[in-house]
Amino acid sequence: MRVSYIRSLGTFxxxxxxxxxxxxxxxxxxxxxxxxxxxxQMFLWWGSGSCPCWKPMIVLxxxxxxxxxxxxxxxxxxxxxxxxxxxxINPRGQVPTFKDGELVVNESxxxxxxxxxxxxxxxxxxxxxxxxxxxxxxxxxFEASNVEIKVLDALAYYFYYTKKEDxxxxxxxxxxATAKTELSHWEKDYPALRKYYDTITARPSVQATWPxxxxxxxxxxxxxxxx
Amino acid sequence: MRVSYIRSLGTFxxxxxxxxxxxxxxxxxxxxxxxxxxxxQMFLWWGSGSCPCWKPMIVLxxxxxxxxxxxxxxxxxxxxxxxxxxxxINPRGQVPTFKDGELVVNESxxxxxxxxxxxxxxxxxxxxxxxxxxxxxxxxxFEASNVEIKVLDALAYYFYYTKKEDxxxxxxxxxxATAKTELSHWEKDYPALRKYYDTITARPSVQATWPxxxxxxxxxxxxxxxx
Lengths: 227, 227
Prior knowledge:
Chains A, B: This is GSTA-like protein. Two copies of one chain form a homodimer. Helices cover 46% and strands 15% of the residues of chain A.
């Protein structure tokens, strides 16, 4: 290991450490730049009530970057996710679509990872310190796609897209069973899920980014009432 | 920033840096420990020809950790992924299932992330250095689930699970169209995909972990011939 040079950078000191391990090659300059964080070069296209959109919005709020962030709330009903601004940098025509200066990052989880790596301080970091601890978070991030597929896609979207008169009790029964099996995986490992939900939703970051149309009142139907 | 102490740790030096930025809180000790890498405390349950299994196997091989790694090749036909050893630490009964000492990591991408963070050196790191560069890799890791859903699940598994006499030409036509649309997203951004494939498959890590039953000869049917 070799400390090659130490120099002043404003009020901060840049320490460049060179050795053969992985993390030392991360550019420390990038960390220091984040001490003066700005969100004015960012842009987020998002939709109200979309989980994929909400995720990076919460992370932005946790980093103190949500307030004043240039953004556009698009209308799902008018299919504004297919507008030319979005399609130009996200050919799948999806939200969230995110820019930080010239850098485009799409896919909600990738945006969260990027924000965590680029804009964290010791006070607002969301991932734990060690590779061992982080591995469990990564495991749950990827495992959570099962909830999306087996609860949201399978059940909630069935109610959402199927008229009452077209719904089939047998189909619903099967979908409810699939969703319950999925949720049981989480409840077994995390018996205090309800408390976790209450703790998380009380956070200022979650409150500040709460889907605006949910504030206007309950939706016509609780699609997950069967659970 | 404050260098609090420097002390010798075997032939390596441990430099503990304390300041307010994120990365500094990563335990440098963990990096140094990896200089003497061992795989004897690891265990991988895997299946031949499974993409989720192959991913961490390639990463292990890239880190020089595949050779001699305690592992079990399970049989999909005999549903050995539901064996008690696996179910005890992976209630979904899936492969890959991975252990590193007492630490369990499941979900293929999470295993890859863990191995990259824990066992990388400057020579074998797979992720790029800066948050900006890594953000694109993360984007593509999460985006790649579309290939799994729209090409593999939709098309390959239809052929795999549907007897020839039960196949429907209209259904196939629709599934092929979906798969082609998906692949076009990748070909537009990465026109040299074929060259990339050839470069990747030539790597020793890929050759060393090639699904053994694929070496025995071609499978009965090319499920992606329509593409």
